[in-house]
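Question thread 4412

I'm putting together a teaching handout and wanted feedback from people who do this every day. The idea is simple: show students a protein as raw sequence, then show them the structure tokens that encode its fold, then repeat with a second protein so they can compare. Below is the first pair exactly as I plan to print it.
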Amino acid sequence: MVDHILKLTVIDAGRSKRYAEIGHVTYPLKDLEIGDGSEQQLFKMDLEK
């Protein structure tokens, strides 16, 4: 999985029936440190447009 990338897209699903993409963030899974799952991990990243 070293060549895989996780992409999360943030959308605005306001009153209109169309979704507006606000931005996205990508995270290479090779940088992910997998623990034993006993504690949460917090990632803070800027959105890309």
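The second pair follows. I'd like the answer to focus on this one:
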Amino acid sequence: MNANRTKRAIVWLTCAALMLSMLSAFATSYPFVGYTTDDLRLRKRPSTSAEVLLVIPAREALIISGADGNFYIVEYEGHSGYAMKSFISLTNPTSLATPVPVSAQTASRYVQLTSGDTGQLVRALQQALKELNYYDGAIDGKFGSGTLRAVRSFQQRNSLPANGVADPATQERLFEGQSVNAFGRQTGIQTLPIGDDVIMRPGSRGELVLALQQQLQALGLYRGALDGRYGSGTEAAVKAFQRDNRLRVDGIAGKNTRQALAAKSSQAPAPDNAPAAPKVTQSPAFQGEEPEATYPYTT
């Protein structure tokens, strides 16, 4: 009787060991993205006494390519090393953030942006954060660790949940009204958000202004720099368009002017020396000699 019980116990333990090994093999399918739960020391070797290569801030995304005992093999912003497993989560902490209540109008106006997002909305976000001196990276439309830190710093200064998520409440505070800049001063910004109902006027800047300049250039009305800044040249071109199309001549690109301009731009062929005007809802291709980006981004 005891012999039978012993055999059953051995069989059960063997099966359990096999199941655990299968689960372990499944769970360690590399590479995958992890997230730091606290400031994390990236070390040269898998030891707590090994040389520290750098300290990775909390809530950062990193690539995990393997494991060695209690350490993961980690890649972060061009650096490779070992980091303790206990400080790394497989769940993105920003996905657990509780959004600040906003009006239905604000919720429909702003799309929530998080780490890994790309495109024109991220470019506008980066431009606004740069204007307030929170962000000093490239305006490349890639929501990486640099953008995450800038968003979190902005939220801390402006009494918002500092989770690094550019939710509608954060963007409303950033783009509308007064907010606190990186130097602690309350100020407004000239960078515009992306939206069909946004009004452009002298002093405005950003992706929408750039698209406006491209449209005016395609119609032969604007010959200045395509710099995304609504200066005197852009204002004059808008006034010329308004006169030609029997609109109120005020130099402000409001709803009626933007709609008429979009209709005209879709009909007229662009000059040979002018780039095609992009739709504001689409993300333009990245420019320059940069290599193809991979997540997690660094900007």
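Top answer:
Good format. For the second protein you could add a caption like this: The helical segments are 2-27, 104-109, 120-131, 145-157, 168-175, 207-218, 232-244, 255-267. The chain is about 35% helix and 15% strand.
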